[in-house]
Amino acid sequence: MLRSLLYSGPSLDHLHEHYAKQGRIDDYAAVKASQIVMIDAPVRTVWHVLATPATWSRIDPTIRDVTMIGAVAPDTPFSWTNGKAKIESRFAVVRPDAELSWTGVSFGARAVHRHQLQRRADAGTDLEIHESMAGPLLGLFFDTAKLQEALVAWAEGIKRVAQNLHINQAR
Prior knowledge:
Elements: H1 2-6, H2 12-18, E1 31-39, H3 43-50, H4 56-59, E2 63-68, E3 77-82, E4 85-95, E5 99-106, E6 109-119, E7 125-134, H5 144-170
Helix pairs in contact: 3-5
């Protein structure tokens, strides 16, 4: 338990290059969660919602102040605020209609956040999300249950926005 509480994980650069870019999260991190959601919208629509950080507040109203210089591309840095947490992030994997992953740091905790999109036979999308967070003493104020709750809300927000966008595009 103490070892888990003190685990800080690999450096942010190592996490970015050897975990996120390699399709992995930090399995040793004390805080990790996954979520899968079925979305009744095409992959292209879901991708658009996910790959447009400036509009993430539509997914989650606690997200604000998204700043990015450049395009959504590997190694492009961006910053954003989620609730009270200011997060400095960098895209790791950008494969349109397939995967969007990034790493980030906030209050000393380092995270990998992966999104994988899969086209379904019915033209909908399965979205799979995985996240790990590591940092000394992180477990004292943020745990796996809280991350799981956040991923559920994030996934449902993406679903809601993508499905509404798809319905409006069909009109």
